[in-house]
Amino acid sequence: MNIVLIGAGNVATQLGLALKKNHTITQVFSRHLTNASSLAKRLNATATDNIEKISTNADIYFLSVTDDAIKPLVNELPNNNGIVVHTAGSVSIDVLGRYKNYGIFYPFQTFSKNRDISFDNIPIMIEGNAENTTNKLFKLASSLSANVHIVNSEQRLLLHIAAVFACNFTNHLYHISKKISDKAELPFNILQPLIEETVSKAFKVSPENAQTGPAARDDRQTMDKHIEILNKSFDDKKLVELYKNLSNRISGISQP
Amino acid sequence: MNIVLIGAGNVATQLGLALKKNHTITQVFSRHLTNASSLAKRLNATATDNIEKISTNADIYFLSVTDDAIKPLVNELPNNNGIVVHTAGSVSIDVLGRYKNYGIFYPFQTFSKNRDISFDNIPIMIEGNAENTTNKLFKLASSLSANVHIVNSEQRLLLHIAAVFACNFTNHLYHISKKISDKAELPFNILQPLIEETVSKAFKVSPENAQTGPAARDDRQTMDKHIEILNKSFDDKKLVELYKNLSNRISGISQP
């Protein structure tokens, strides 16, 4: 397929690199020409910052931009006979309604520009405005990954929220853990086997059954000790609140 | 070494199974004879629920019980010429001060009775009351794992708190994610590649640099949409508070 990428951020970059293997990226658009150019270079494509210069005969147009940039782009991007998709988790398919063929191509992963990642097993959520479009998107997604799902916009929004808890928020908890291990003058990677086992266990026995720790045992003595140390070690009252809130949630579930 | 296990819970079970490979577990004590017996059986050891019947000529005694059970046991366990250690993260070494030789043997991992786990790379934190004891504990720990660290009680307490955030609290976030993917009628394991990449990335580029998501972009529109859906989908006001609190922490760090 001939593909145009609209956007040059984390998702556009990693998606472009993956698509390039079996398809042709003809063009990269970004409001910032330097961004468009540096991605286009990696993809052997041409670059533009002029929306009117976007080719109108590509098979598929990927809108990979921040959520609030999608609508303004839809108003400017010319009509075409290809499929226009966006890659966002929380934006309805309806925003693309002015096109003939449109849909969703949502790779369910966390991306960075400079961390190249294999798409082989990344879940890709697709949705098409009509069966014909859905089939084409399914075929394209299957050329990247063995893990393709047809989901509607409501399901996709819920999945995005699940991802915020499972990825963005857990990463923030890792950030807190790192601050604490720094305070103990011990390397953060001392936590790696524990963190990896936590993940592995959650998928083996389910998170409900995997829950351990002072809150799950309702061990008040230990929790009070932790709160005391957090108060003493960090000038961050909300960190203590977070410890209490999460502990209370866990105790509430574990202690009926 | 000849080893006595005091306790028959998650840690005692997995530690016993690991120690058994190169050492002899002679005895398992638990206040509940059925627990002592079922673990003793797996370790080819004898079982007792009578603390006065604990052998006094073992090389090492492992107190693997809940934190608040350690002190009462220390008052009852007879003097001996072995080393008495406990395996708790948040209890000072001083609680064992009445013995001649004592210390800490803290395997830094999450354990379940029925999930057998390799100790090869589990970090083990040790501390001894004297150099001679520390050396013996180091040698014993090294017979289980290549990842042994000498840490004092303050460092260990901080590490335990780091583990609560990195393991217990993240597992709770996985639990929430699962509830949300259930609501979307999609299998929880659709989240596995994302969660695994989150872990991998945190250790490759550090959690500070790995942070992505609506809060990191300060994308209010998406966060408001998520809050609306959480309110609509779950009868759990504190879940919405948790979403807001964690998002605010992340926005505060990412948006200077």
Question: Secondary-structure blueprint of this entry?
Answer:
The structure is a homodimer of 256-residue chains.
Chain A lengths: L1 E5 L3 H10 L4 E6 L3 H11 L2 E3 L11 E4 L3 H10 L6 E4 L14 E7 L16 E5 L2 H12 L5 E3 L2 H31 L8 H14 L1 H4 L9 H14 L3 H18 L2
Parallel strand pairs in A: 1-2, 1-4, 2-3, 4-5, 5-6, 7-8
Antiparallel strand pairs in A: 6-7
Quick gist of this model?
Chain A is an alpha/beta fold and 256 residues long. Chain A has helices at 10-19, 33-43, 67-76, 131-142, 153-183, 192-205, 207-210, 220-233, 237-254, and strands spanning 2-6, 24-29, 46-48, 60-63, 83-86, 101-107, 124-128, 148-150.
Main beta-sheet annotation of chain A:
8 strands, mixed
Low-confidence spans of chain A: pLDDT under 50, at least 5 residues?
A: none
Count interface residues per chain for the largest interface.
Answer: A-B, 93 and 93 residues
Radius of gyration of chain A: 22 Å
Oligomer classification: homodimer
Query: What is the typical, i.e. mean, pLDDT of chain A?
Result: 95
**DSSP strand content of chain A:** 5-15%
Indicate the structural class of chain A.
alpha/beta
Shape of chain A: elongated
What is the succession of H and E elements of chain A? EHEHEEHEEEHEHHHHH
The percent of residues in helical segments of chain A reads 40-55%
> How many β-strand runs of chain A?
8
Strand order of the largest sheet of chain A: 3-2-1-4-5-6-7-8
Q: How many H/I helical runs of chain A?
A: 9
